[in-house]
Amino acid sequence: MAIEINATNRKAQGTGASRRLRNTGRVPGVLYGVGDVNMIELDHNELYYKLRAEAFHASILTLNLEGKKEAVLLRDFVMHPFRQQVQHIDFQRVDEKKKMHIKVPLHFLNEAIAPGVKDGGGKVSHVMNDLDITCLPKDLPAFIEVDLSHLALGHSVHVSDLKLPNGVEAASHGAHAAEAVVATVQVPRGMLEAEVTAEAEAAAAASAAAAPAVAPGAAKTAGGAAPAAAPAAAAPAAPAAKKTK
Questions:
Q1: Pick from 21, 170, 193: nearest CA to 104
Q2: Cα–Cα distances in Å, from 110 out to 143, 162, 230, 231?
Q3: Global pTM value
Q4: Less CB within 10 Å around the terminal CB: N or C of the chain?
C-alpha cells in the first residue's frame, strides 16, 4: 500500500514567507517533474514522522494535493542545523514509462551465522547501507537483500554478487562499479596483532638459523691456523750510570 502525504498549494513565496510558514507549523516544498511546477506546503508533524520511516525515502508515494492524488518520489529535504525541524522538501512526479534513478536500502541477512563471524570471531562491516539503482516505477523494490551466510573471515560481498530483482540494475559509477564492496568480515584486531607477532618471531628464528656459527675462542684465518700473537712491546732501556771522577 502506497504511503500517502497531504499537501496544499503555497501562494506566498520568498524567504520571509517561508519563515512565517514554518512558524505556523507548516513546511514549504516544491513538486516538479511532468507538468507544472507547484509550490506546496505540508503539515510539519505529519511530514516529520513520515520521514522517520525507511519506506518513505525509497518508495513511490501518493501526494494528495488538495484532492488530486499523484504518484511522486521524495527527492530532497532540508533539516534545521540543530532543531528537529524540517525546513524544506522536494517531490518529483513519477513517469510510469521512464526509468528512474533512486537509492534503495540494503537489508543484511544471516550475519550471525556467517562463517567469518560464527567460527572466525570476525565482525561484519557494512560499507554500503543503500544502493543506487535504475528501474521503471513498477519494478521499484522496497529494499535489496544481502545474504552474508557464506562470508568467510577477511572476505567481502561486492555489488556484482547481489541478486537484484527483475528489471532492476545497479547504477553505474565507473569501470569498477560492479566490484565495489558492500560488506566485509573484518579480522579481529587481537588476531591481527597475534599474526604480526608470530610472523616477526618466525622471521627472527629463520634469520638466526641462517647465520654462520662462530666457535668459541679466537677466530681462525682463511688458512685454518690461528693468527700469531702480536709481539710484546720492548721494555724501555734503563738510563746509563754516570761515572764518578
A1: 170
A2: 16, 14, 80, 84
A3: 0.71
A4: C
